[in-house]
Amino acid sequence: MNAVGILLAAGRGRRFDPLGARNKLLQPLASGAPVVVASARILLSVLPRVIAVVPPQDGGVADTLSALGCEVTLCAQADSGMAASLVQAITYSLPQADAWLVALGDMPYVAPATLRALLAALAGGADIAAPVFAGRRGNPVAFGAVHLPALLALEGEYGARALLKSAPVVEVAVDDPGILRDIDTPEDLA
Question: Three-state SS for 120?
Fold first, then answer.
């Protein structure tokens, strides 16, 4: 299995700042690290190849992620929804990749052990693996090669949500509240 990490970092973060003056991904966490840096470091600690998707005029996110060792790809259609970013990243990963661990740039609290557990589920035969904490499914989500055609056909603002509802998902129990914790508002930075 040749798994690749995908970091979706092309959203506009309008709930964080409706005026768009502050990019939430570049805001510092309590640790001092910018949100997207913390998110990328988690993926990079587990996977040798991480592809980050950014929008045009990203305010410096691409340069920051590139300096960390991510491969960065620009998604000109980022405003059309998460699916465009996901398709962009998966297309960019080909032909080498045959599994994808899809993480969100605004989720900096996921434990590396969760990523390893999702990859182990794929290696054990799962076609889709999603983490579950306290009975709630979260992110990131891992996809196997059998879903490549469906992933490349995604459209809209909800990314792979429809695929997660229509295909069997192996739920991986984790002791990781970080799978449910994202940065949506300035208060979430604390």
Answer: helix
Which residues fall within 8 angstroms of residue 21, CB to CB, at 6 or more apart?
A: none
Given pLDDT bands bounded at 50, 70 and 90, which one contains residue 187? confident
Angle, nearest 10°, between helix axes 61-68 and 35-44?
A: 30
Full domain range(s) for residue 152: 3-189
Q: What is the pLDDT of residues 84-123, one digit of tens each?
A: 899 999 999 999 999 999 999 999 999 999 999 999 999 9
User: Helices marked H in the chain — which ranges?
Assistant: 35-44, 61-68, 82-93, 112-123, 148-152, 161-166
Total of domains in the chain: 1
pLDDT at 163: 85
